[in-house]
């Protein structure tokens, strides 16, 4: 009896290779998106003037103020996020759903004082797990899905966030102005003006 050689089906092998690549790709995406994001470490004195008080804060104090404000602001919100000032960046850290899994994201900013005494945050880096996505995509997602204070505005095209201290001060009996932001030394000076009547 003579055996006839088996004919190989190239479509079968192409399908198996494609299926393997799809499974590997999905595994890599899930691994990278569910990986933890590194968080910057957290780290004052006051000076007084006539109707103004100049306050100098360090990183630890700025982070404590931020945490206190956001805890109150997001008290009844389902979506939680944090704002942490590190040695190099100011970072927005949060969690969201991606492909059915809860993933952590972080968006790094370089803060700058504006001429009006506000704070402009320029986006410099982003991580969703260990997966890199376009900054504009994530900023648009934040703007649409996250509860932000009225005095915070996102500009997706410019990849900036403006912390408008003038708008924050509108309903208060005092006015806040940023005087200096020094990330290297970890010092942040603000002028608090108390109106005289």
The gross shape turns out to be elongated
Biggest sheet: strand arrangement:
3-4-5-6-8-7
**Uncertain runs with pLDDT below 50, 5 residues or more?**
42-50
Order of helices and strands: HEEHEEEEHEEHEE
Class computed from helices, strands and strand pairing: alpha+beta
> Helix fraction?
25-40%
For the terminal residues, how far apart are their CA atoms?
113 Å
Strand content: 35-45%
**What is the domain tally?**
1
Total DSSP E strands:
10
Rg from Cα: 24 Å
The whole-number mean of residue pLDDT values reads: 78
Oligomer kind = single chain
Task: Tally the helices.
Answer: 4
Reported for the largest beta sheet, the result is: 6 strands, antiparallel
What does this structure look like?
- This is YpmS family protein.
- InterPro entries: DUF2140.
- Keywords: Membrane, Transmembrane, Transmembrane helix.
- Pfam families: DUF2140.
- With about 200 residues, the protein is of the alpha+beta class.
- The protein has one domain (about 35-195).
- Helix content is about 30%, strand content about 35%.
- The protein has helices at about 10-35, 60-75, 135-145, 165-170, and strands at about 45-50, 50-60, 80-85, 90-100, 100-115, 120-130, 150-155, 160-165, 175-180, 185-195.
- Strands 3-4-5-6-8-7 form a 6-stranded antiparallel sheet. A 4-stranded antiparallel sheet has the order 1-2-10-9.
- β7 and β8 form a beta hairpin.
- The protein is elongated.
């Amino acid at each position: 009896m003579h055996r006839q050689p088996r004919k190989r089906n190239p479509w079968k092998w192409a399908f198996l290779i494609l299926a393997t690549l799809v499974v590997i790709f999905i595994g890599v995406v899930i691994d990278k998106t569910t990986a933890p994001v590194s968080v910057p470490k957290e780290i004052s004195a006051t000076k007084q003037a006539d109707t103004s008080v100049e306050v100098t804060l360090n990183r630890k104090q700025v982070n404590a103020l931020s945490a206190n404000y956001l805890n109150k602001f997001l008290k009844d919100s389902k979506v939680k996020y944090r704002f942490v000032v590190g040695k190099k960046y100011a970072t927005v850290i949060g969690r969201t759903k991606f492909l059915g899994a809860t993933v952590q994201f972080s968006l790094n900013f370089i803060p700058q004082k504006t001429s009006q005494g506000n704070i402009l945050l320029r986006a410099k880096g982003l991580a969703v797990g260990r997966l890199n996505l376009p900054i504009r995509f994530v900023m648009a997602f934040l703007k649409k899905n996250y509860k932000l204070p009225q005095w915070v505005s996102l500009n997706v095209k410019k990849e900036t966030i403006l912390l408008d201290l003038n708008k924050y001060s509108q309903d208060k009996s005092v006015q806040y102005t940023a005087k200096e932001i020094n990330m290297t030394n970890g010092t942040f000076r603000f002028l608090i003006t108390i109106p005289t009547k």
